[in-house]
């Protein structure tokens, strides 16, 4: 698109200079298109400036989403014993690094800590702040069998959750991926604008060549 803009505006400018000089020498004044070159360049620069602003906001959004990702720390992986008709009972706990969490692990989330991965509550009852991921301003009560999203904040009591999705499969990772994809891919209206610009520049070039002949 930039090449087309340069070719079109340069052709308009060069022809206008030629027409101006030819008119000064011969006295036959042809129409000039200096304003066309200036307006085209102005509109293109304005469009690129707006696009840069949009990409900057998208980059800021991605940065904020990445900051929500729990930092590598240590969590308690619990071994649970289940009995018929009753909730699981913790029989042992050991501390592991967050990077070692695997689907199926039962994790103890302490009060005030971020939920490390997506999972299901298997023990405990507490309110969770989901506003940083879903935008919900009201605290959500999580009980046994409730689904929790990674990066949300566990508030007052402890929860034991069973990990279901880790790494790039979590909800937050999928949101980041969608935002990054939207930044790198062109919107349908932008593709249509590129197509229209090609047709327009071809038309301008043919018009300039016709006038020159």
Automatic annotation (TrEMBL):
It is found in: Membrane. Signal peptide: none annotated. Residues 92-179 form the P-type ATPase A domain. The keyword Membrane applies. Keywords: Membrane, Metal-binding, Transmembrane, Transmembrane helix. The chain crosses the membrane at residues 12-30. SUPFAM superfamilies: Calcium ATPase, transduction domain A (SSF81653). It comes from the Eukaryota. Gene3D superfamilies: Calcium-transporting ATPase, cytoplasmic transduction domain A. GO terms for molecular function: metal ion binding. This is Copper-transporting ATPase RAN1 isoform X4.
């Amino acid at each position: 698109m930039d090449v087309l803009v340069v070719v079109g505006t340069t052709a308009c400018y060069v022809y206008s200079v030629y027409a101006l000089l030819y008119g000064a020498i011969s006295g036959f004044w042809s129409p000039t298109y200096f304003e066309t070159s200036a307006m085209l360049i102005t509109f293109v620069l304005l469009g690129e400036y707006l696009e840069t602003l949009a990409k900057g906001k998208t980059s800021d959004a991605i940065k904020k989403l990445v900051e929500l990702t729990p930092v590598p720390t240590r969590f308690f992986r619990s071994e649970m014993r289940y009995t018929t008709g009753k909730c699981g009972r913790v029989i042992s706990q050991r501390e592991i690094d967050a990077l070692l969490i695997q689907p199926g692990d039962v994790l103890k989330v302490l009060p005030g800590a971020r939920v490390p991965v997506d999972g299901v509550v298997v023990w405990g009852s507490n309110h969770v702040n989901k506003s940083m991921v879903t935008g919900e301003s009201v605290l959500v009560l999580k009980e046994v069998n409730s689904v929790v999203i990674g990066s949300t904040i566990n508030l007052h009591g402890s929860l034991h959750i069973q990990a279901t999705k880790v790494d790039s499969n979590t909800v937050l990772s999928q949101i980041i991926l969608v935002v990054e994809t939207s930044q790198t891919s062109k919107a349908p209206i932008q593709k249509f604008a590129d197509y229209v610009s090609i047709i327009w520049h071809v038309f301008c070039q043919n018009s300039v060549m016709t006038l020159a002949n």
